[in-house]
Write a structure and sequence with these properties.
With 321 residues, the protein is mainly α. It has 16 helices and two strands. It has one domain: Chondroitin AC/alginate lyase (Glycosyltransferase), CATH 1.50.10.
Amino acid sequence: MSTQYTHYGLIFTAQDVENAKTHRDQTPYADAWAQFEAIPSSLHFQNDVLVDKCIYNALRWRLLGDVDSGALALENFSAACDIVGAQPSFYFIWVKMWFGLIQAYECLRDHPAYDPLLQSTLSDAAFQWVGVFSPMPEYDPTTQSMAWQYAVRMAIGVALENTALVESTAARVRALIETIHPAGFIPSVISQRPNDLSNFDDTLKTIHGLALAAEVAAHVGIDLWGHQKRAVSLMTAAFYPLYYFYYPEKWKWGEGLTLETVQGMFRSHAGFLELINRRRPNVRAVNMILTELRPVIDLTGGGALTLTHQPLPSKKRGFFG
């Protein structure tokens, strides 16, 4: 397999940015641009402030060509690496910070102030993390954490052009995809906490992480979106929870899931909806939910996804594809 390394936005291209600029005043771009540019004054930074600001300023450089923001991101990059290189207090938030920071690095590589030595900074921080170049840490072996670890491993492999890491991670993603039940649920997620309503949130987390891993892989010529076993693919799992956005009482593994709770969970992981909408556009259920959740901007979960992942016009599909 010939891995095609490109370094622009990790999961989006220059053409994607051009499309967002060209259609700036149209739906859904207009609201997304407004929210993205209002972030410094209106959005509470969810993780470590310095890491989030580094990611946001890198995205401003990439999406807006804001040289000053890019320079600020570069100034903060080494300190941000020190933060993510430390022992995590909460694994899921920490691993998301890792993904966002790698995306920031990819966005900054062509900035006039970029120093090639920053690649060593990123590499050193990655080597300090047990789980990137070595087995998964035992303190959080859950399926959703593994899915996000795969997204980070894939991203680091691309950033460092480490083909062995990219290919080994792709193999792990394929193996996890092959465990998806034909109905669409992921047995290992459900079995972690049976009859616990958190397994719905765990399902969304897992799909989001796998979708990011697949999207990173797609940008270097590896098709994980299309990988399937007996016609079951990542898309099968991605479509599975959509029904429960409107009918949470039908969830099979635990009683008491409410509309407010489920829709809040979807809002936290809405990035995966923009990703699957890009790969399988005009699915009615996806469009309906995105209409309620957009704009989708998740600094550590893919970036300004409503801006970067709008599909090209194509034939309309049914409710679930």
